[in-house]
Fold this protein.
Amino acid sequence: MENSYDNENWKSTYERRMKEAVKELYAEYTPEDFLSSPEAAILENITGYTSVQLEKIREITEGMEEKLINLAGFYREKRPVKRIYAEPSDVEEGFLIPECQKFRVGSLCFESERSREISGARLIGVYGGEKGAIEDYSYVLKDINYTKAEPFGSKPKAGAELYFVFDRLPSLDRELAIYLECKESKIDLMTYDKGNKETDIEWELYTREGYKKIKCTDNTKNLNKSGSIIFNLGQRREEKARPEFIKKEGYIIRGTLVRADYSACPKINSARGAVFPLMQRDTRSYIYTFSGQRECYIYGDIMEEQYVRVYCKKYGSRLYSKCGGEEYERIRHDYGRYCYSFKEAYENTAVAAYSEDAVRVCRLGCILGYDNEEFDLPFDNIIESCFSIILEIPVGEGVMYDFVRPKIPGVMGFIYELNESAGKLRVIKAGECAGSNMYIGEAATALLTEGTLLKGTELEPLGYDTGVRFLNVADTVYGGMEETFNELRRRFVTDVYKSYTAVTSRDYEDIVMGIPEINVQKVKALGNSEKNEITIAVYIKGMKEGDRLPALAGSIIMREINKRRLLSTKVSLASPVFTHINVSGVIMVKKHYEDCKNQIRETIVQLTDYIKCGKGFGEPLMFEELYGKIQALSCVSYIASLNMAPANYRYAAESGSDIKPADNCLLMPGNIQLTLNYEKEELN
């Protein structure tokens, strides 16, 4: 609403309100009494300014409105810094790129998060299917294709395999990444998030000793969404191979499907490798830190600008001191490669490197110590996760230094926060740092305006000429770090008008899991559409076999459900039922291993105890999972026989080799009988 005090009729409006207020407060006086009275002038001014002040108090500023929204539990969201994946081509010989290596596309800047080896490894083949029926899906390596590959077949089953074949592998950092464009499945993503957190695909590298298990980070969630798969090759002695179904000899990484709970089969549209990630940021200053080293090696583009400050912290000291040039020797080995050799070893050493534009504006000012003190940041769109400050603290007749990140208390109790979009630094607590100077330590900026970087866009590396081309492997949305206040307000208003009526079984489960008064560990809502009924099985922490759901907990749950259920839907609660699983087996163990029986027994207990292992009501116990976990133990040579069966068939049934519990049933360890053999000698 427009403030009447700010328009051109301010004077007449002010006088009118003033006289009305005076008449109301001093009704016994007549207007003639105030024509020339000094008392009247004083009363008019006091009353008028009081009226203006009351109007101003009723105004709500943007900052006040945001704090009120915060009280409702809504805060500005911090969006993650965007990443893209680049694929190098025309690599004749492997080389290293430095930390914070910049790649530009027009006004955009992307950087490597760490020093990386560009090995020139190429993905030359993709194969998949069931054992004995492996098909060639290498057409997903082409730039244009209209057929999506089904690597595990149209009906995935446990044991299906997926092969990636490379012409070479990295030799230094031993990390290899591929990028897959997959058909996204929202249903499978929800199942994956609520189910077993372990990967359902086991990855192996072909070595001189055969296939050996390797670690990986699967950002595709078992091929349910587009993303990267990053393999950690370790120190395995890989070698080339060419099985009969592979066209070209190469290094092989194999994925075996351990569990096949797909509601829709995964599909791959394209595959790229080897790739590496780049962050959408532009580093203006960076701090390299070392612990207890006399020789500190640095590889970074920003070092070439030659704006460097060196700090060291002696053993037992709380703060850093600045190092003079006489305390160390700087040796340049190559572009961006430096070695700082110190005369003595320090507990911690920090090398702060600045670009030319950052070193001119790195001083933010002096901390005075009053509440909510603010400082302007020299750059727009600074990324909070890539920011730190250096405090220059007066100590005696000299100064010492401390490095402090946002919202993390420094040694002297200094705490601050950033407002990225407004370009402000606000002091939360000055601690013992009043009178200290503040400098930028690390700073990186990003582009806030959102846009799309198209697949196949070439990225230009800065700082040196090379014949290697770097291409973006997928359409990627960039920009937008912190939610603006208007976005926060729109999200709050949308939530206020959002309907919270429970309709699906998932809605009822979310309601029960979100009740703060009781510690609900597991919940399962079972719907009967014919009778329009919902039965909810609830397990509360501490319940044992045979326990009933406590009456108080039941009343709390029904209180929350009745607020949101449809009036025509009948809802009832059910206590969980438990079924024990009996396991027996004959297992061959290796030499020189002790306590094998307890290791195997513990593995069985972990998988069959649904209360502790993370599985929920009605989730099947897969025979392949139990068999694979036992076989993976270092003490096990092979499994001669293995059997599992429910102790009570009332609430669980056998489905082939697997066990399927009822929808309101949780499995528990039962009788475990193991016979361990070694060289035909019974060790039992």
Observations:
- The longest strand covers residues 665-678.
- The radius of gyration is 34 Å.
- The chain is about 20% helix and 35% strand.
- The chain has a mean pLDDT of 83.
